[in-house]
Amino acid sequence: MTRRGLAAKAAGAALAAVLLAACAGAGAPADRTGGKAPEPARGGAGGLPPVVDHVPTRDRVVFLTYDDGAERDPGFPALVRDRRLPVTLFLTDTVAGPAYGHFARLRAVGASLQNHTLDHPALRGLPHLGQRAEICGQQRKLNARFGVRPRLFRPPYGRYDTATLRAAADCGITAVVLWRAAPDPSGALAFTHGEPRLRPGDIIAVDPDRPKGTALTGRTEKVLEEIERRGLRVGRLEDYL
User: Fold this and answer.
1) Residue 46, pLDDT score
2) Burial code of 162-180, b = ≥16 C-beta within 10 A, e = fewer?
3) What is the DSSP string of 150-216?
4) What band does 231 get if pLDDT is binned at 50, 70 and 90?
5) pLDDT tens-digit readout, 196-219
6) In degrees, to the nearest 5, what angle opens at C-alpha 175 toward C-alphas 70 and 178?
7) Which end of the chain is least crowded, N or C, by CB within 10 Å?
8) Which residues make Cβ contacts (< 8 Å) with residue 40, sequence separation at least 6?
9) Given its phi and psi angles, is residue 198 left (phi above 0), alpha (psi -120 to 50 degrees) or beta?
10) Where is this region: Disordered (predicted)?
11) pTM strictly above 0.85
12) What angle do CA 44, 45, 48 make, to 5 degrees?
C-alpha cells in the first residue's frame, strides 16, 4: 500500500474511534460503528427540536457531556464539586438505574441529568410509537426519581431519524444533542467534522464506559487541560439551548 493509502486508512480509523466514543453503554449492540456521524441540523423545523453538536456563541465556553451511566467512578462527584463543573449527564435507565443514588450525588454538586432513553436501542428505523416509548418512558423515570423533566435528549450512538425528532417533541424535548469532539483512546481530542481544534460552543462527549485504563476522573482532567490550554472554560449546556 502506498504512503498516501496508509495515511488515508489511519485517518479513517481515527474518525471511526471518535464516532464511537460517546455511546458505549451496557447492553449495546455488538456493532457500534454505525458509519458516519449524522450531520447536525442548524435549527428545528416544523415544530421539531433542533439537532446540535455546537452552539453558536461568543462566550469562550465549551460543554462537557457524558452518556449512559455505566461507570460510577467514586472520585468523579468530587471533581465536579471542586472544579464547579456544570456537566451534563445523558442517562439510560437500564444502565444508570441500579445506581441512581450516585447520580443524585452528582446532581447535588451541579450536574444536569438529561435523557438517553430507557433501554439504549438504536432508534433510527424504529416505529414512531416505539421511539416515543423509549424517550417518554425515560422522561417519566427521571421525573419520578429526581423531580426533573429533561429538555435535552441524546439518541444512543448518535443515530436518529425524523421519527426520533417527532417522538422527542412529543415527550417535551427541546433539543437533540450530538457532539463535535470526543477523546480518542489516547485521551487526545478528535473531531467528527470541521476544524480539528476546540472552538467556543463545541459540545464534547467524554466516553464514560471504558472498563480498562484511566478512570473517568482522569479522562475528564485531561480534557480540562486542553480546554484551559485553549483559553476556554466549561459552560452549562442548558443555559445555551
Assistant:
1) 75
2) ebbbbbbbebebebbbbbb
3) -SEE--GGG---HHHHHHHHHTT--EEE--SEEE-TTS-EEESSSSSS--TTBEEE-----SSSS-H
4) very high
5) 999 999 999 997 656 567 889 999
6) 50
7) N
8) 51, 52, 53, 54, 178
9) beta
10) 29-51
11) no
12) 65
Q: Tell me which of 3-12, 42-51, 123-132, 207-216 is least confident.
A: 3-12
Which comes out higher in pLDDT, residue 33 or 46? 46
- Stretch (H or E) spanning 17: helix 3-21
Residue 187, judged by CB atoms within 10 A of its CB (0-12, 13-18, 19+), counts as middle
pLDDT single digits (tens) 119-145: 999 999 999 999 999 999 999 999 999
User: What letter would DSSP give residue 137?
Assistant: H
User: What's the mean per-residue pLDDT of the chain?
Assistant: 84
Q: Is 177 within 8 Å of 116 (Cβ atoms)?
A: no
Distant-in-sequence, close-in-space partners of 89: CB < 8 Å, separation ≥ 6: 65, 66, 67, 69, 103, 106, 111, 112, 113, 114
Of the CA atoms within 13 Å of residue 120, those in its CB half-sphere come to: 23
- Residues in the chain, total: 241
**Residue 11 predicted with pLDDT over 70:** no
Residue 224 identity (one-letter amino acid):
L
| Cα–Cα distance, 165 to 155 (Å, whole number) | 10
C-alpha cell at 137: 418512558
